[in-house]
Amino acid sequence: MSSFLSFAELCQRVEGVSGSLEKVDLVAAFLKNLDDDELAVASGFIMGDLFSPSMDLVMGVGPSILYEAMARACGCSTERISDMLRATGDPGLVASAAVDKKKPIGFAAFIKDEPLSIKEVYQRLVAVARASGKGSQDAKVKNLQYLFSQATPLEAQYIARLAIEDMRIGIGEGGVRDAIAQAFSQDASKVERAYNLTNDIGLVAVNARKGTLADLSVLINHPIKMMLAQVGEGISASMQELGSAAIEWKYDGARVQIHKDGKRVRIFSRRLEDVTRSLPEIVRLAQEVRADKAILDGEVVAIGKDSRPLAFQEILKRFRRKYNVEKQAKETPLHLFLFDLIYLDGQSTVDLPLTRRRELLEGIADPSILADQVISDSVQRAEEIYHQALEKGHEGLILKNSMSVYAPGKRGKNWLKIKPVMETLDLAVIGAKWGEGRRASFLGSYRLACLDEATSKLQDIGWVATGLTDEALAELTELFRELILVQNGMEVELKPAVIFEVAYEEIQKSQSYSSGYALRFPRLVRVRDDKSLEEADSLERVESLYRVQRGRNNSR
Ligand code: ATP
Asked: Catalytic positions, please?
């Protein structure tokens, strides 16, 4: 049985080296020596992904639960923990320092012969996640408290980071995939494909070891990564690239992946979170689909009285809603537009061409819930459809290669999106400032960062003031309150978890921020609750937008 200490030591080493190849080597060597259960757990742990998606578990640990657990385990006050945080800015280091100085009270007073094992830590974290409803806060604290009370300082550092699902060791999904490929002598592309199909890194690791990656396929009730679209270079060039294309509106809504298993329906958001409970009318629509088992891909749109789509925030409110969902469903009804089929009655359909998937979809779904689609090679036809979409308040077009397979998790040339505006950036919010005067109780401006994919680190790119109403600001402040890590005068450091979609006039080179860039006149477009941190735009994308923009300016 492998000790959790060995895992913590691995993390420390991975964090300590800067090259991504070295990190992959270290992880690969570690994974090789684990038994299957440990392998499944540790592969996820390394990237801060704690549970298999089939378990349908959410950690639900914010800084307040974490600090309470540390304080209780170490016999110090939460104020002391907050002070330490101000000094280090890293919950992992605080946990390690707190454990180092702990007084043996509570659980820690028991003598324990066995060091923590990977499995034990995992089981405790499952217990933390399973605690829900009344009394759950306390149950979560107690389980974490137990772990901290048994941990060495180094173990505590990574237990804290696991608890908030933010490992900060500079290796992401791609690195872990490469490590699995290397550890078990598998092709990296096969590992990637298996991961995109199952979204379950533990399952992939175990099958890589067995040499059975090819057996992994789409599984019902197992959300699959969604296929994404690339930015097209205008209608004419994109149509030329695709030849005969499937032309569809880019609906202004939110992505859903629907799993229908008999009468049981589960709906996953773009982040692959289960949002079934909040969308009863979509569940009912999916139950009418004429297939015993199916995985459907589409967009839900909230349409207002003027028959135009409502703001994206309105849809997200529906996604987040846990209570009074039927009432809310009446107030903001959602429409469903299905555009793809991923699985049908026991068979994955991802390898079929789009036209065939569409035929199958038309065979099982009522036309009222299908996205309109026109197959054509005419630029003029595409332009007409584009104008119709914009007139109806939607975003533009998605032009699809009609012969293409469904490529899970891929943003490729087979789906091209056409939108009228300059591309916005999706940036991680890593800090904020309290307002002044009347707005002193609101977080008014926010520090933004893009993701440096080479190092998996967030690099700041400036601040955005929201220009929001007091009511909207209050709502936003509430969203961030749980994420405050460190309070520094008027500024706070936030746990990076929220993505802002930001529009701007121009990208400029800048020495003021670690990304090397700054945004001119940034403006908050919306909170992208449907995107996870890893989906923040990359530094590479900022650089490429900067170059495109320079080209454009030069040709003026
Ligand atoms: P954006 O910010 O432009 O929505 P994104 O990163 O969320 O970008 P993209 O892959 O760039 O996602 O664009 C595809 C998104 O457009 C899908 O995730 C989906 O939510 C939405 N969409 C709307 N209509 C369609 C359609 N007909 N086919 C595919 N995706 C569609």
From this structure: 250
Q: Residue ranges for the binding site? A: 248, 255, 270, 299, 339, 411, 417
Q: How far apart are CA 332 and CA 253, in angstroms?
A: 13
Instruction: Characterize the bridge pairing of strands 443-452 and 425-434.
Output: antiparallel
Q: What angle do CA 450, 176, 89 make, to 5 degrees?
A: 45
Percent composition of the chain: helix, strand, coil (DSSP 3-state, to 5) = 45, 25, 35
What does the DSSP 8-state code read for residue 438? G
For 469-515, how does the pLDDT look when each residue is reduced to its tens digit (9 = 90+)?
778 888 889 989 889 998 888 899 999 999 999 988 778 899 999 99
ipTM above 0.90, yes or no: yes
Q: Which residues are annotated as a binding site for ATP?
A: 248, 255, 270, 299, 339, 411, 417
Neighbours of 9 (CB within 10 A): 15
Structural domains present in the chain: 49-163 (1.10.3260.10), 237-418 (3.30.470.30), 424-555 (2.40.50.140)
Stated length of the chain? 556
Give the Å distance between the CA of 290 and the centre of ligand 1. Answer: 26
Atom of ligand 1 nearest to the CA of 226: 18
pTM, full prediction: 0.73
Six token digits for residue 378: 């005419």
Which strands form 334-344's sheet, in the order they lie side by side?
A: 264-268, 254-261, 293-302, 334-344, 347-348
